[in-house]
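Researcher: Good morning. I'm working through a list of sequences from a screen, and I'd like to move beyond sequence-only analysis. For each chain I'm collecting a predicted structure so we can compare shapes side by side. This is the next one on the list. No need for commentary yet; just the structure.
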Amino acid sequence: MIDKVIAHIDANRDASVERLNDFLRIQSISTDPSCDAESRRGAAWVKDVFTGCGLDTEIVETEKHPCVIADSGPADGPTVLIYGHYDVQPTGDESLWDSPPFEPTVRDGLLYARGSADDKGQVLAHMLAAESWMKTAGKLPIRVKFLVEGEEEIGSPNLEPVVRKLKDRLACDYVVLSDTPKFDRKTPAITYGTKGLIYKEITLTGPKQNLHSGSYGGTLMNPGNALAVIIAALKDGENRVTVPGFYDKVRPLTADEKEKIKELPFDEEGFRGSIGTPSLEGEAGYTTLERRWARPTLDVNGLLGGFTGEGASTVIPAKVMAKVSMRIVPDQVPAEISAAFDDAVRAATPKGVRLEIKTFADAAAYVSPIDSPGMAAAIEAVEAGFGKKPLFIREGGTLPILPLFKEVLGADSLMLGFCCPDCNAHGPNEWFALDDLHAGTKTSAHFLNRMASM
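Model: Good morning. Structure tokens for this chain:
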């Protein structure tokens, strides 16, 4: 039967692209209230696909954007929950796009549009695979459930209540998602670990207004100077974070993991050139990939304060602000790291300024076992779909849903990357390779078939 399913996918290649184009024209920007109606249209579009191929489907309301849940019904063998999201990032400066972000355009086999890779193209591959099974065999080989949400790009604030409330309906043996990349354009990958995230905003206030630095300099603590002192105190000369206890619970890479990372065909100089930095820097004693994937980091994400326009204005700023994020790794406890960071900032803050710290994100890291039956099926499926055995990689980004699924559903997640790592997700000219859309659809179809033989 799998041969007939794959033949159906091949026969509908052009139609699949047109359906993705329809999906991409929906301006489901979750962070923009003016696009709320488009987000609802996105949810309805997803529901129609599931309903059209015979899956029991429901739109689940939340306090903001709805989720879509679909279920193929009871069946022998394991149950898989496929997760994805229909919301997309804002377009940013549209003058930087070579074609309108919501008018899908194909150039040299690449489909350009906002959300093409993140995540509409990738989640649609799974949807099309399920549809091909239904239209060819009349049923799926195992029980498959779908959860497609509309708030991933704003941190999934309403997903946790849905998962906890509907945990029996969402019960599964494995969660499958494709919101991660391949290793490179030619090499597929399975991501087995992601970092957690703690995101802070530090605000310092001093005088009631900006002051003349000649008339008042030397008479008070400059909030800009104070912020520089705080930021400088957060790292040492070897790029190690100085927050007390920061590394106490870091799970080290095993010798086997370190060896496998070392064996990956990673072009360090090519990577440096691709991001345009003079040199690659980070925590001493670790390779670039180890730092990206398995070591915790602390970075300044934004600075605001004082005069920043053209020319000169010699002021002492009344108020300054810094955005700071920490990407944490397995076994680090978000609440503990968050509290330790706050204590370290308070300890480093000079007298003469008022300090305020806000926390905007607090998510744990996640690592999936690589020796499970589900992972074995995923490896075989990716090789069948892409024609090449996948590499195991980790990811420096954060997917807060993964530890949530593990906690509430007791299920590990399998992250099958269909898009290329340089696809410009979140940036201008985001793209998804049409070959990867079809390879991903075949991968998903093969995965369900292999899970049925477990």
